[in-house]
Amino acid sequence: MALRIRDGDYVPGPGGLAETEGSETLLQNVLFRLTARRGSFPFWPELGSRLYQLGRLPVAERQGAAEQYVAEAMAQMPELTVTAVTLEDDRLRVDLRAQEQTVSVELTVEGG
Question: Which pTM does this prediction carry?
Fold first, then answer.
């Protein structure tokens, strides 16, 4: 279980803050790691991804860089296996497997 986050803020729930469970917790953790800028947390510099840097690269290099950046972001979650990373224009889709669960996330990336 974890506290539910929406748009960077904790979500209120009955008697306090709302919590997540199961695949929702996993999905929230994945999205947080992919959208947080790597190096922006001084006490945890390896948290986050460099996906925000994709727009600085030539178009031909972006797919490979996206795969690398996703792998870096997920490295601290050894229970997950990245099964696919697909970048089309500014849409990124990441497919992951955790034990018996599969999770897919889609997000918009700058300059993708």
Answer: 0.82
